[in-house]
Amino acid sequence: MVVGAPHVAILAIPYMGHMIPLSEFAKLLQVRYGFDVTFITVDNSFDVLSFTASLPGTIASVLLPQPSLHDLPPQSKIDTIISHTMARSVPSLREVIVNLKATTNLVALVVDLYGVDAFDISEELGLKKYLIFPSAATSLCFALHLAELDRTIEGEYQDHPEPIHVPGCVPFHGRDLMDPAQDRKDDSYSHLLYHSARYKEAHGIIVNSSIALEPRPIKEINSNTKFPNVYPIGPLIKNGNDVEGEDVTGCLKWLGKQPPNSVLYVSFGSGGNLSPEQLSELAGGLEMSGKRFIWVIRSPVITKDGVLMEVKTGKEEEEHLKEFMERINGVGMVVRSWVPQISILKHEATGGFLTHCGWNSSIEGMVHGVPMIAWPQYAEQKMNSVVLSEEIKVAIRMKVDDENGGLVKRQEISKVIKSLMEGEEGKKIEERIKSIQQEVTRQLDGGSSNLALDFIAKKWIAN
Question: Most C-beta atoms within 10 A of its C-beta, which of 19, 159, 170, 435?
Answer without folding.
Answer: 19
